[in-house]
């Protein structure tokens, strides 16, 4: 197959290009080339998706397209340029499109979706809601142009693994590798849900090969936070001790959830976000998604870690201070 990857120079896009190449496909990556380098062994075409004619440099037809776009204008330009030139279109959307983040166990069939972005709005970086609405708009452009029989909407969950630029999963891999007393947020029975970029990429390539159509979540089965830390301990072994600290204590001390400075990555407030990391992965697993053990993702991520300054999460000093306060209380 001849597969066009719109992107392909960082994280998931690179994983898709790499695994499509390894599966024997003819791969073309189209991007600005400013976020990173394409993988070896694939063709690279420099394009500017901000321009309506930005994909004019692409020649010929494609058996399948994989688009990881976030801006509605980029996807609108792409589907217009590729109409009649591609047999199958995969759009990598996001779990952020869902309007209900509180109800556990939802599926594509049961979960309400946000309204699309207002016409002309094109900035998914404003906040989480803007990001979700922009992704809804992108989904609509794809299905309106390629139809429901030739388009696959993959609503990815939290993507982790080697080359993850967000640093959220890396924080926990580094923290477990360092050992000592580890501040674990919430309770052991709280849930965490991630997907390895390589597993997601493999499923996306399979979808192109099989002509998989429709809308599905790209996410592994959720695990308890206790199981999450057990996988971290297996993949990044150290001498350590977990200390569980309830969310009320953390909120009072202005520890941020999810990401950012002075945060605990992958931790979300309950019950407001009880459904965000507890989606039912059953339909996706039944449709061919295969996921590796979380400890394997941890181990591979640890090998790929690079030395870099603190960006997100708690500093060692912040964590130690919070633990002292908790024990004193």
Description:
- With 329 residues, this protein is an alpha/beta fold.
- The strands form five sheets. The chain has a seven-stranded parallel beta sheet with strand order 3-2-1-4-5-6-11, with helices on both faces. Strands 7-10 form a two-stranded parallel sheet. The protein has a two-stranded parallel ribbon with strand order 8-13.
- The mean pLDDT is 96.
- The chain is 34% helix and 19% strand.
- The chain has helices spanning 11-22, 72-82, 128-146, 168-178, 197-210, 225-235, 247-252, 282-286, 294-304, 316-328; strands at 2-6, 26-31, 43-46, 64-67, 89-94, 151-156, 159-160, 180-185, 191-192, 195-196, 214-218, 223-224, 240-245, 256-258, 263-265.
- It folds into two domains: 2-160 and 194-218, NAD(P)-binding Rossmann-like Domain (Rossmann fold), CATH 3.40.50.720; 168-193 and 222-275 and 293-324, UDP-galactose 4-epimerase, domain 1.
- It is globular, with a radius of gyration of 20 Å.
Major sheet = 7 strands, parallel
Strand order within the widest sheet? 3-2-1-4-5-6-11
Which radius of gyration do the C-alpha atoms yield?
Answer: 20 Å
Q: How many distinct helices?
A: 10
Distance between the terminal alpha carbons, to the nearest Å?
62 Å
Q: Low-confidence spans: pLDDT under 50, at least 5 residues?
A: none
Overall 3D form: globular
What is the helix fraction of residues, given as a range? 25-40%
Average pLDDT confidence is 96
What is the CATH homology-level superfamily of the largest domain?
A: NAD(P)-binding Rossmann-like Domain
Oligomer kind: single chain
Number-wise, the strands total 15
The H-and-E topology, N to C, reads as EHEEEHEHEEHEEEHEEHEHEEHHH
Report strand %.
15-25%
**CATH structural architecture of the largest domain:** 3-Layer(aba) Sandwich
The total domain count is 2
